[in-house]
Known about the structure:
By secondary structure, this protein is α+β, with helices and mostly antiparallel strands. The protein has helices at residues 33-38, 70-85, 109-116, 134-147, 171-182, 186-193, 217-227, 232-252, 281-285, 318-324, 349-361, 378-388, 391-398, 418-421, 428-442; strands spanning 19-23, 48-55, 59-60, 94-98, 125-128, 153-160, 307-317, 330-339, 370-373, 447-454, 458-466. Helix 3 (109-116) links the parallel strand 4 and strand 5. Belongs to the thiolase-like superfamily. Thiolase family. Pfam families: Thiolase_C, Thiolase_N.
Amino acid sequence: MSGLVxxxxxxxxxxxxxxxxxxxxxRFNRKSYATAVSKPSPQGGKNIVYIDGVRTPFLVSNTDYSxxxxxxxxxxxxxxxxKKTGIPTDAIDYVCYGTVMQEVRTSNIAREAALSAGxxxxxxxxxxxxxxxxxxxxxxxGIGLINSGIYxxxxxxxxxxxxxxxxxxxxxxRSLMLRANKAKTPMQKLSLxxxxxxxxxxxxxxxxxxxxxNETMGHxxxxxxxxxxxxxxxxxxxxxxxxxxxxxxxxxxxxxDMIPFVVPGLKNVVDKDNGVRVSTKEQLAKxxxxxxxxYGTVTAANASYLTDGASAGLIMTEDKAxxxxxxxxxxxxxxxYVSQDPxxxxxxxxxxxxxxxxxxxxxxxxxxxxxxxxxxxxxxILANLKALDxxxxxxxxxxRSSKVGTPDMSKWNTWGGSLSLGHPFAATxxxxxxxxxxxxxxxxxxxxxxxxxAAGGQGIAMLMERHPDAKI
Length: 472
């Protein structure tokens, strides 16, 4: 990606320095695993390790999972994580699970799924939400609980089920029904029912727009593409790259985090992501804009799609892993959250979070051997890359003297990403973590970096380091 001249970059309005929260668990030497293991932080940080992670196949909504529930998918990941790692369920101290489109009947889905998965009734569990980085939040919540000395072993995960989202009655109808429920006599109830009008039956659909701006994320993606001069062809080319790499990863057997799912009523076992589509440039070019019509550049093919899926990962202290005889895949080294203007910079979380995390860790772009970055839109990915490679953006918004630079694209999302594999909002973060751990092992790399944007103008970056005993 070439750098942009100042005139081609957006003049974002009302920008304040992004808020951030950074955790650094231990001092580590970029050259030596041994140093990382033997010198924990004097501030009390612990060596926290990622043992392994699993996920259901990610499916396009309203396909093979359509008759299930979010609870079914979440339970499946918790059951199979325990089977895969071999950890006794009573050794799990806590469960933290993320979700965005919450099902009312299982509002604390972490607890309900853990109980049905056979985890101990004495294992506490709670549910978190932070849009597309909800399972990242579950993971870092676990890191915080371990680092505070309260627990040693935590399961973090996330689930999203877009095939059956909650749709409410209109507010007028809800109010009437509540009053009718409190009515003491049949006549009082009949008098309330007599006030019903056709408008009462118009449903209250879940919002598809940012509450603060009333703008859809797709519109933000289109505006970001225009601001950074990201062309339609660049977006389509990136989308084709994502799908091609995902198809190859499936074919080569790299996606070992995926657990076959026996769905009741289906003849065949669900054993792969079903949204991977390797098309041609000509076919992609024929698609019409999905949001800003007729001049937008974001289409159904270069944007992530509505997806059903769940994921779960196991973290603990390195000492606990040794006691249990488990082989960690990676160290959880550091993370940072950022937030910025939810209108003009809604999707730029990675451009803010990546340099902040690298600075804190004392690493450079060249030290990162594995990049796993969430692909909400091809436009979002390309805009973040151009922002990182821009002196103007660095000086104006990052308050740096020069640009961060461009990551090595040969190490970037080499097994595909959210555009192709799918994006169940709250489950993507754990997928990124497990793919980072597995890729570091397969590709013989020391450091892996995860980054993602999220609704509300927020974002995250996380650093993982390959464990010396790591195996697939």
